[in-house]
UniProtKB/TrEMBL annotation:
CDD domains: ybbN. It comes from Pseudorhizobium tarimense. Keywords: Disulfide bond, Electron transport, Redox-active center, Transport. Belongs to the thioredoxin family. Residues 25-143 form the Thioredoxin domain. InterPro entries: Thioredoxin (IPR005746), Thioredoxin-like_sf (IPR036249), Thioredoxin_CS (IPR017937), Thioredoxin_domain (IPR013766), TPR-like_helical_dom_sf (IPR011990). Gene3D superfamilies: Glutaredoxin, Tetratricopeptide repeat domain. It comes from the Bacteria. PANTHER family: GEO12009P1. This is Thioredoxin. Pfam families: Thioredoxin, TPR_19, TPR_20.
């Protein structure tokens, strides 16, 4: 999926789109205003309509340039879809350029609008209908505005968190971006998008997004946790070359200062178990180093990782055995 085709995106902060990331080597940018509407083709129909309709309802507008009623319907349909704020997406197919799909679906008169949900057509209408009828049609296929949005957002965030935890950064970022489209001030989604950027190694973009958040979002605990992680990356960047530190430890395993630096770097790289191991090794050998600095650093890691993180649980158990042995 190219950046221009990406139907997902984050909110806008500081006058620029902030929900972009690198997926499979291609830049994925947040959808601009009007990102709920796109043109499609025979080749792209499956991705733009079938696959996308599994995330939210997709309306397909079958039209042609010579069709007078199409010219009446299209601007009103686009207006209503944009006002729906992501409850539905609109995909337009020029039947002159791409006759195969309408032929397969038996479209014999245009304009024709067909609603797809969960990968299949569920409803539709023909002709240039009035705006009130268009709104009723969207409510019918997507549910009344605001009825289940909060629950849907929470479900999407939960799913995105799970995907990110399992390493599916691309899909997680798409879900966080979809939430930010529906609710640009959602702190959990903003934090999630920044976490995806961090996982992808785009620290600069994550920092840029953090700096552009409004104060009420920047102070949210979820965002603050990301800010702490970014601080750790910045600190790790200043600590030196990890390969050089590894070499130094091979020469002198008791160089606790080098080991402490390496622990911070490994944590910033996401290698939590390795980071904890270095700190636990310092604790076993010298509890007095930097006034019990290894233990204090490990506690900071626990706070950043979260109490339920497997690395926290395992390292806390081992730390207890050192402290109370």
């Amino acid at each position: 999926m190219s950046g221009s085709d990406n139907p997902y995106g984050g909110g806008t902060y500081g006058g620029q789109m902030t929900g972009s990331a690198q997926f499979g080597g291609a830049a994925q940018a947040a959808a601009p205003a009007g990102g709920y509407i796109k043109d499609t083709s025979t080749a792209a129909f499956a991705a733009d309509v079938i696959d996308e309709s599994r995330r939210q309802p997709v309306l397909v507008d079958f039209w042609a340039p010579w069709c007078g009623p199409c010219k009446q319907l299209t601007p009103v349909l686009e207006k209503v879809v944009n006002e729906a704020q992501g409850r539905v997406k609109l995909v337009k197919l020029n039947i002159d350029d791409h006759p195969a799909i309408p032929g397969q679906m038996g479209i014999q008169s245009i304009p024709a609008v067909v609603a797809f949900v969960d990968g299949r057509p569920v409803d539709g209408f023909m002709g240039a209908v009035p705006e009130t009828q268009l709104r009723q049609f969207i409510d019918k296929v997507a549910g009344p505005a605001g009825s289940d949005q909060a629950a849907e957002i929470e479900a999407a965030l939960g799913e995105a968190d799970g995907l990110l935890a399992n390493g599916d950064v691309q899909t997680a970022a798409q879900l966080y971006g979809a939430v930010l489209q529906a609710d640009p001030e959602n702190a959990k989604a903003a934090a999630g998008m920044m976490r995806c950027l961090i996982e992808l190694g785009d620290i600069a973009r994550a920092s840029q997004m953090l700096q552009s958040l409004p104060p009420e979002l920047a102070g949210d605990p979820a965002v603050q946790a990301v800010a702490k992680k970014l601080e750790q990356f910045e600190e790790a960047r200043k600590l030196g070359d990890p390969a050089a530190l590894e070499h130094q430890l091979s020469l002198d395993p008791d160089d606790h200062a080098a080991r402490m630096k390496l622990a911070k770097i490994r944590n910033a790289e996401g290698k939590r178990e390795e980071a904890a191991e270095h700190l636990l090794m310092i604790m076993r050998k010298d509890r007095e180093f930097e006034e019990d600095g290894a233990r204090r650093q490990l506690l900071e890691f626990f706070e950043a990782w979260g109490a339920k993180d497997p690395a926290t649980i395992a390292a806390r158990r081992r730390m207890s055995s050192i402290l109370f042995s």
